Amino acid sequence: MTPLLTIIVLILVAIAIWQMTKIFELSQIKTDNSQIANDKDNKYNGYLMFGFLIFIYALTIFSFWKYSKVLLPEAASEHGEEYDSLMLVSFIIIFFVQTLTQGLLHYFAFKYRGEKGRKALFFADNDRLEFIWTIIPVIVLSGLILWGLYAWTNIMDINDEDDPITIELYAQQFSWTARYAGDDNVLGDANVRMIDIDNANILGIDMADPNAADDVIVREIHLPVGRKVNFKMRSQDVLHSAYMPHFRAQMNCVPGMITQFSFTPTITTAEMRQKPDVVDKVKGINKQRAERAAKGEDNTDPWEFDYILLCNKICGKSHYNMQMKIIVETEEEYNKWMAEQKSFGESMASVQ
Ligand SMILES: [Cu+2]
């Protein structure tokens, strides 16, 4: 109700201002009744252009100051560093060009404002100017595109070098399930047609496949730091997207096919929780939660940073809540956790 009232009040205020300007205009005894802009009008508009320029620069600076802290912390994967550099360089170039061109645009609009008797100066054609403003973007964009293609090929090169762990990410409306490939590091065949809920075969794993028995199905991903992981994505129903923002990783999960993404985590969860910007973010969120708790609202438990797997495709009404925790830890911690997990073969044996 309050937003609606606010909107109505804003509309009424706008109408009032508009009406008052009209009254003000009518009350002016006009010496010049012409509809054609004179020097004074042009000068005002020139100053207004400057005002607008200051407004957009101020807005940019304000946004940097206010919203930088909502950005992701440093990349927690090996390829993430190059990905972030590419992003940063692109942003710096865009920022520089935008600041310069907007400045020039508004300055010239003021400098060459209409004046009685002044004729516009123009070039019908100027080869040197055209050459300059063609060649600079060509060089800069080619550089960015080549660098981007190089980074893309590196990131998307999924192979079995360096002894990777194989993990399947299984998406369905509205949850994630992960399956480790087990001791043999080969995932057993699976197909949605073989799903057998009554026998706890929730992922449709082919029980006849000898590679399947040692697979481990979990609801939380644990990764040893510094070890490469090859993810294989499947979807049960609609398009989902496996999004692991802290590792700068995202891949669509498509029904009927297996897609892949590979990365090496470089920072453990415990180390990430110590990073100054993460500490700040956690503090900020917990402050808001404490305020909500004081008002007796829901969702007020203190929050702790964790890596997360999210769905990044609007896949249905509970899409927003489709997530799974990822824990990056030391090799020993990982081995200890893995030893506690039941394999697919063991859990099948216990149901039958
Ligand atoms: Cu989804």
From TrEMBL:
The chain crosses the membrane at residues 6-24, 44-65, 85-110, 131-152. Residues 64-159 form the Cytochrome oxidase subunit II transmembrane region profile domain. Its EC number is 7.1.1.9. It catalyses: 4 Fe(II)-[cytochrome c] + O2 + 8 H(+)(in) = 4 Fe(III)-[cytochrome c] + 2 H2O + 4 H(+)(out). It is a multi-pass membrane protein. Subunits I and II form the functional core of the enzyme complex. Electrons originating in cytochrome c are transferred via heme a and Cu(A) to the binuclear center formed by heme a3 and Cu(B). This is Cytochrome c oxidase subunit 2. It comes from Arenibacter nanhaiticus.
